[in-house]
Each structure stands twice: as structure tokens, then as C-alpha cells.
Amino acid sequence: MKRWLKLVAIGLSGIVALLLLAGAGLYVAGGSRIHRRYDVQPPALSIPIGDTAAIARGRHLAEAVTGCHGCHGDQLQGGVLIDEPMMATLYASNLTPGRGGIGPAYTDADLVRAIRHGVNSQGRGLMIMHADAYNRLGPEDLGALVAYVRSVPAVDSALPPMRTGPLGRILVALGMLDRDAMPLIPAEHIDHRAPLAPTPPPGVTAAYGEYLVSIAMCRMCHGANLGGGPPLDEGARPAPNIAGYAAPGVWTEAQFIGTIRNGVTPAGRTLDAEYMPWDVYARMTDEELLAIWRYLESLARR
């Protein structure tokens, strides 16, 4: 009996040792992924600093299309996104020149690198930064966004140090925090050598609507062809097939615009702003929403 108990104890000790060794390996692998450096040379870009029209355009993009204020705050003062010691402490940076802000430390090229490539000024990939969508920004809009960020008044907002806890590192190594449509570290999936693509001329066209859909992150939830996607969280609704809404006899363009403006579908269902930020997209112009509708119609015809 004693011999059997001794063998069981030895076996359990071996299992525990193997688990600890595996955990240590995953911890190191997760840290390697988090701290990987990217040699990214941002494209040469003319930043229209002080240009009131460009700044207004950049502000409109941040407030109504790209959703920058959703993470970085109404004044771009930043804010904590996750604060779980075992998992991670992650925050959206204070983008202003105030205390705790990155404004003085980041050059215009650093801001372009962060927005378009998801890489910070030290060359590390940013987490929970939707550069995979912002990579599609045209040169004029990208320059306007940087000009807007530079125009924002200083806000004092010191944030805690960014860190990833042991459980977080293990989950990062296992890829359990990644989703196909929402990668944890977008820099891993971006072609950093791709040239800036020209912006389609603004107007009520499917081409311009496709551009807006891309930079507004619609595909993150609704899928590559906007045909729907799985729930983002347990208990959430699946993302609907919004391309199908543009099929003849389903929704009209007026119903589409009304849904975005008011957050209520033609069937009377209220949209959950936590998962469908209609209150952000409601700030788009009628021309922008009509362009998106034209793009949805083009998808429905296919």
C-alpha cells in the first residue's frame, strides 16, 4: 500500500513538473510575441498641420467613422481598457501633449506608424489597435487624422504602466485572445511594405462606400463580404447579414439611414450600442451613409 502511494506521489509530482515546465514555456512564448519588434518605415506623408479644413475632416473621421474616441476618449485623453492583474493592464494612450500623453514623444511619422501599421515608437506591435482596418486609410484621410490629433488641447491623464500578467501571456501564446476578424496584435497580419492606396473620390458611389466600410471596421463583426458573423461575446447576438438588407424588397435606403441615425431597425428592434456602435456611425453624413448603401446594394446583386 505504501509503495503504491509512493508511486502515485511520484507520478503526480512528475505531472505537476511537466505542467510547470509547459506553463513556463508558454509564458516565454507569449512574451516573445508581445515584445516582438517590427522594422516599419512609415510612408512619407504631408501632414496638414493647422489646416482647419483638414483638421475638421480628421475630427469627423475620428468621431463618426474610425471610432477613435471610443477607446481614446472624447478628448483623446486615453483610458484603461483592461485591468486584471493575472491577465493584463492595457490602456488606450493619452494622445494629447498633456501630462501622461504621448504627444511630445511621438513624431508625425510615429503617429502614422501607429495608426497605419499598429506599431509603436519603440517598434513593438500595439494590442487592441485596429490598424488592420486603418491600414486602408487613404493618404489625405491619414494626414487629416494626424493633423486632428496634433490640434487637440493638452489633457493631463497619467495612465498605469502597460503589462501582461502570467495568465495573459499564456493565453497570448496559445492564440486564445485572437479572432479572425479581430487579431490581438494586428501588426502580425499587415503587409507593412504595401504602398498607400489612393482614396476613392468622395461621393455616393459603391467604391467610396466600400472604402468607408473598410476603415469603419464593419467587417470586424459582419464578415469579409458583410454576410454576417459569429457573436463577439458569449450571450451576444450574431452579427447579421447586412448585405442582404440591401436586396430588393428587404430594406429601403431610407430605412437603412433611419436605422443608423436612430438605432432602431424597421422591425422595431433596438440596436445594442455596445456591439453595434450606431451612435458613432449616426454622425456620418447622408452622403457617406448613401455610399455605404450603394456598396451593400452591389454586394446584394452578387
Description:
There is one protein chain. This protein has 302 residues and is mainly alpha-helical. 45% of the residues lie in helices and 4% in strands. The chain has 13 helices and 3 strands. A 3-stranded antiparallel β-sheet has the order 1-2-3. β1 (79-84) and β2 form a beta hairpin. α1 packs across α7 (166-174) and α2 (52-65) crosses α6 (139-151). The longest helix has 33 residues, at 2-34. Residues 4-9 have low confidence and may be disordered.
How would you concisely characterize the structure shown here?
With 302 residues, the protein is mainly α.
| Gap from first CA to last CA | 73 Å
Helix content: 40-55%
Sheet having the most strands: 3 strands, antiparallel
**How many individual helices?**
13
Shape: globular
The whole-number mean of residue pLDDT values reads: 88
Compute the CA-based radius of gyration. 23 Å
Low-confidence stretches are: 4-9
What key phrases describe this protein's structure?
302 residues, mainly alpha, three-stranded antiparallel β-sheet, 3 strands, 45% helix
Compile the SSE list and pairings:
Blueprint: H1 2-34, H2 52-65, H3 68-72, E1 79-84, E2 88-92, H4 108-117, H5 131-134, H6 139-151, E3 163-164, H7 166-174, H8 206-215, H9 218-222, H10 242-245, H11 253-262, H12 278-281, H13 286-301
